[in-house]
Write a structure and sequence with these properties.
6-stranded antiparallel beta sheet, 13 strands, 310 residues, disordered N terminus
């Protein structure tokens, strides 16, 4: 009998200790209220037990840092334009997310500078519109459509212009992207640079059509890089975008750039620069472009977005 009592007492004591342990480790719910009334709950306790390094912010968002740089190159004027939404204001960032865009005005048409500026202005207006409230993938699409309508209106006024567009939207640890034309979006992760979009150029279309049709593949250097899609093109059909987000990791860098960058700087050179902080990386990459001193250097513009937890 006493043995049974002792066993029962041990079981009860073990259960109490287990419950106390569970209660001690239970995540603490903290609420942070931001301007505009948004409240975010964060579980903070588990991170101190599992990870001894810098902690993820209580709002659940990464720390974002942005570097931008743009040079004219050997061109007469700057036909690239950049936009990056407010990212230093934490409340604004958490409320809207971060949207960045690079537009490269088409040099073969007149008013390329007007086209690229029109693109980023419309992107900004669409993103900041109070009535937006759309899902992230739709947010980028509607912003691009607004930019497209703006450039089409310029064309109908006789200004004849167009622009490429690459844009990304970051919300918490998720990334959405949209691209039209031959500018580029890349992910720098663990020392490797991975291109996330494709170029809308004649060579790609010709190669694909030839392979699937079985017809001989012909190449013309003068036409291979001709754009098959750009903002301001009538009956625009080629738009690359993500419908579901890509998961970001601490240490990632998202790079948006015009062809004046990747057409001049090698991948190895770019990776070496991207090992630095975003602000320094952007400056180093455009400095590399200038150091090459190419006789026909195009405008070169870049946005580097760094993702971290500290």
């Amino acid at each position: 009998m006493w043995i049974g009592v002792i066993v029962l007492a041990a079981v009860i004591a073990g259960g109490v200790l287990y419950a106390l342990g569970r209660r001690k480790k239970r995540p603490v719910q903290q609420e942070t209220t931001y301007e505009g009334g948004e409240t975010v709950a964060a579980d903070t306790a588990p991170t101190t037990e599992m990870y001894n390094g810098p902690q993820i912010a209580q709002d659940g968002w990464p720390i974002l840092r942005v570097g931008t740089s743009s040079i004219v190159g050997k061109r007469k004027n700057q036909q690239d334009a950049l936009y990056c939404s407010e990212w230093k204001n934490r409340a604004s960032l958490v409320n809207r997310g971060l949207l960045a865009a690079v537009a490269d005005g088409i040099g073969g048409l007149s008013n390329g500078d007007l086209a690229s500026v029109t693109v980023v202005q419309n992107i900004r207006s669409s993103f900041l519109a109070e009535s937006a409230g759309r899902e992230p993938a739709e947010e980028l699409l509607y912003a691009a459509a607004s930019a497209h309508r703006g450039v089409l209106e310029l064309n109908r006024e006789g200004k004849m212009c167009g622009s490429t567009l690459v844009s990304v939207l970051i919300r918490k640890w998720s990334l959405w992207l949209l691209s039209i034309g031959d500018s580029r979006i890349a992910l720098y992760r663990a020392g490797v640079l991975l291109t996330l979009n494709r170029e809308h150029i004649m060579k790609r279309d010709t190669d694909e059509q030839s392979v699937f049709s079985g017809a001989p593949i012909s190449s013309d250097a003068r036409k291979d890089k001709a754009l098959t899609a750009f903002v301001g093109k009538e009956n625009l059909r080629q738009i690359d975008r993500t419908l579901t987000p890509m998961r970001l990791l601490p240490g990632d860098k998202i790079v948006l750039m015009s062809d004046g960058i990747f057409g001049t700087v090698s991948e190895d050179e770019m990776c070496a620069a991207l090992a630095c902080a975003p602000e320094e990386a952007a400056r180093k990459i455009t400095a590399l472009v200038e150091a090459k001193n190419k006789s026909a250097q195009d405008n070169a513009s870049i946005i580097v977005i760094g993702v971290s937890i500290a």
